[in-house]
Task: inverse folding
């Protein structure tokens, strides 16, 4: 790994707590179906997981948005569900349906999983993608690796698919907290190994996506969202001192403040529901924040998009800040609106 003491790249400076001369920008799901060049590669690749496990094609779709827009960071093209797949819970992505897994809801299901030690072996193609990207990315672009947070991955493992209420995982966690914790513990360990292997292959920053953090009541949030991410941050910081970790506890609301403090994350991703003024007061004093334009403003584009982006920039751009969306780009986003947003953010001065 390179010297982390004096970061030169814009995104790394912001994550080190600096107010940067211009604001770094990347967007969650910046690679994907809104781009015609992605749809072409996707159509030729076979299944979605075939694409994730093909280093040459995964590298190509990671680079597509960098070529088009000149973002400050590239995020590895993969998915949070490669971890259950590597643990032996087979994952399929059905067209128009999203991910489908054979649900696991008890100790017998856990016992049927393979060992955590097999995860990095199974995911070797993903780390090969990271190595290739490290060699091919422009020198001013930061490479972000990622994983799902244990809680969010567990919601898919228990439910067998995406759901609006994460009921299967919540009911397991409420009825049998000790048994559910066994699943979380497996995922903590697997996630540490998966993220470490990405850093070893060349990822400079890692982001932990806790998409469904907001569905947990406070006491469960503490135990199944905050604590596991704290364990992951601690282990990564011990192995890789100075490694910037961004956590994205979507929907955490007022619990985000304690979460940022206790997990030891270096950056906090804000969803659309977080008030920038509140974040400036309660979160930014603790470190870099990232967010949080509504993805549908990017679909709408024009004056309203630029105005709301300017508002976020004017409130959070005075401190360490990375511009992003409050959640991922949606497929109906016009690619030219993304270009317009990047131009707007890059042209912004406080
Ligand atoms: O047909 C297709 O092309 C599949 C669409 C797709 C894509 C482009 C899926 C299926 N995953 C991805 C890539 C992906 N997923 C990335 C790539 C890097 C980038 O950002 O460009 C990342 C970071 C993810 C992370 C991910 N996958 C999350 C967390 C972030 C979020 O968006 O909330 C989650 C929850 C998933 C699960 C998943 N994978 C795919 C879908 C459709 C879903 C969501 C299912 C649901 O609605 O619950």
Result:
């Amino acid at each position: 790994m390179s010297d982390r003491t004096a970061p030169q790249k814009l995104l790394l400076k912001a994550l080190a707590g600096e107010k940067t001369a211009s604001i770094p920008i990347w967007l969650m799901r910046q690679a994907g179906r809104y781009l015609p060049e992605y749809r072409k590669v996707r159509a030729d690749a076979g299944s979605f997981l075939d694409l994730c496990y093909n280093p040459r094609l995964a590298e190509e779709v990671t680079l597509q948005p960098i070529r088009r827009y000149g973002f400050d960071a590239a995020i590895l093209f993969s998915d949070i569900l490669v971890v259950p797949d590597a643990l032996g819970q087979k994952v399929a992505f059905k067209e128009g349906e999203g991910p489908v897994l054979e649900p696991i809801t008890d100790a017998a299901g856990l016992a049927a999983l393979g060992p955590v030690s097999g995860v990095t072996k199974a995911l070797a193609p993903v780390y090969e993608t990271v190595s290739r990207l490290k060699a091919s990315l422009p020198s001013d672009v930061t490479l972000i690796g990622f994983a799902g947070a244990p809680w969010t991955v567990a919601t898919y493992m228990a439910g067998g698919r995406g759901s609006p209420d994460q009921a299967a995982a919540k009911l397991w966690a409420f009825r049998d907290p000790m048994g559910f914790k066994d699943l979380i513990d497996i995922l903590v360990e697997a996630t540490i190994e998966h993220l470490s292997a990405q850093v070893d292959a060349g990822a400079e920053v890692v982001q932990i996506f806790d998409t469904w953090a907001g569905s947990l009541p406070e006491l469960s949030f503490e135990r199944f969202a905050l604590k596991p991410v704290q364990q992951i941050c601690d282990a990564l910081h011990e192995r890789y001192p100075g490694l910037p970790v961004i956590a994205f506890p979507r929907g955490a609301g007022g619990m985000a403040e304690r979460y940022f403090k206790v997990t030891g994350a270096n950056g906090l991703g804000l969803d659309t529901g977080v008030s920038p003024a509140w974040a400036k007061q309660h979160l930014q004093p603790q470190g870099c924040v990232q967010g949080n334009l509504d993805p549908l403003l990017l679909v709408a584009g024009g004056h309203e998009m630029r105005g709301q982006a300017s508002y976020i920039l004017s409130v959070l751009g005075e401190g360490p800040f990375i511009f992003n969306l409050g959640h991922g780009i949606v497929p109906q986003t016009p690619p030219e609106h993304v270009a317009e947003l990047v131009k707007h953010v890059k042209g912004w001065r406080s």
About this structure: The chain has one domain: 2-346. Strands lie at 73-75, 91-94, 98-101, 142-148, 205-210, 245-249, 267-269, 288-293, 321-325. The first strand starts at residue 73 and ends at 75.
